[in-house]
């Protein structure tokens, strides 16, 4: 899935490719990410996962940067192609986001909420038919829930997913 987005605040996204697997594997092994994502896979598996995602229509794996410094992993996905579609009344053009701040020196400094706001604004601007951007952080992942809230996402109820109890967070077009 290819998608061009213009983010503000010095943020940029670029499509991930298999050459990013070593960095993404390192980020996913960080305790603050591994606990929630449970994807501390070897480099080879990350390379395969990135190739699988880029070959399909479900999701787009990306590397996030701010002021030209790469710091995190982002997945953009169409809810209609995702298991999440089975758990809430999605709309045809809903986008979903997964974000992991891999650079531990940038965790807890408000970067996540700034990225999430910029990302949601860019998705809503790029596609007029889209009226919502959603996320489903683990209900117990307080830092993530707070970041989404600070980025303008509203809590829209609990979701009982196979691997977690999540809080559906929704950012609506204003």
How would you characterize the overall build of this protein?
By secondary structure, this protein is of the alpha+beta class. It has helices spanning 21-28, 31-37, 43-55, 111-126, 142-150; strands spanning 11-15, 59-66, 69-78, 95-101, 132-135, 154-161, 164-172. It has a single domain, classed as Gcn5-related N-acetyltransferase (GNAT) (Aminopeptidase). Helix 1 (21-28) crosses helix 3 (43-55) and helix 4 crosses helix 5 (142-150). The longest helix has 16 residues, at 111-126. The protein starts with 10 loop residues before the first strand and ends with a strand. Keywords: Antibiotic resistance. Pathway: Siderophore biosynthesis; mycobactin biosynthesis. It comes from Kribbella hippodromi.
Percentage of residues in helical conformation = 25-40%
Determine the structural class based on helices, strands and strand pairing.
alpha+beta
- Low-pLDDT parts are none
The shape is: globular
Q: Return the CATH topology.
A: Aminopeptidase
Keywords:
174 residues; alpha+beta; Aminopeptidase; 7-stranded mixed β-sheet; 30% helix; Acyltransferase_MbtK/IucB-like; Acyl_CoA_acyltransferase; antibiotic resistance
Q: How would you sum up this structure in a few lines?
A:
With 174 residues, the chain is of the alpha+beta class. 30% of the residues lie in helices and 29% in strands.
Secondary structure layout:
Elements: E1 11-15, H1 21-28, H2 31-37, H3 43-55, E2 59-66, E3 69-78, E4 95-101, H4 111-126, E5 132-135, H5 142-150, E6 154-161, E7 164-172
Pfam families: Acetyltransf_8 (PF13523)
Function: Acyltransferase required for the direct transfer of medium- to long-chain fatty acyl moieties from a carrier protein (MbtL) on to the epsilon-amino group of lysine residue in the mycobactin core.
InterPro entries: Acyl_CoA_acyltransferase (IPR016181), Acyltransferase_MbtK/IucB-like (IPR019432), GNAT_dom (IPR000182)
């Amino acid at each position: 899935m290819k998608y061009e987005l213009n983010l503000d605040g010095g943020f940029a996204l670029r499509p991930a490719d298999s050459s990013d697997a070593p960095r993404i594997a390192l980020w996913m092994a960080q305790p603050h990410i591994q606990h929630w994502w449970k994807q501390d896979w070897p480099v080879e598996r990350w390379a395969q996962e990135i190739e699988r995602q880029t070959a399909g229509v479900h999701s787009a794996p990306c590397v996030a940067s701010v002021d030209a410094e790469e710091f995190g992993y982002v997945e953009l996905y169409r809810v209609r192609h995702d298991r999440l579609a089975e758990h809430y009344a999605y709309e045809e053009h809903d986008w979903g986001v997964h974000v992991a701040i891999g650079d531990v020196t940038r965790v807890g400094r408000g970067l996540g909420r700034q990225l999430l706001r910029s990302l949601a604004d860019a998705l809503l601007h790029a596609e007029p038919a889209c009226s919502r951007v959603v996320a489903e952080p683990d209900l117990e992942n307080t830092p993530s829930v707070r970041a989404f809230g600070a980025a303008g996402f509203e809590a829209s109820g609990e979701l009982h997913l196979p691997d977690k109890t999540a809080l559906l967070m929704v950012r609506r077009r204003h």
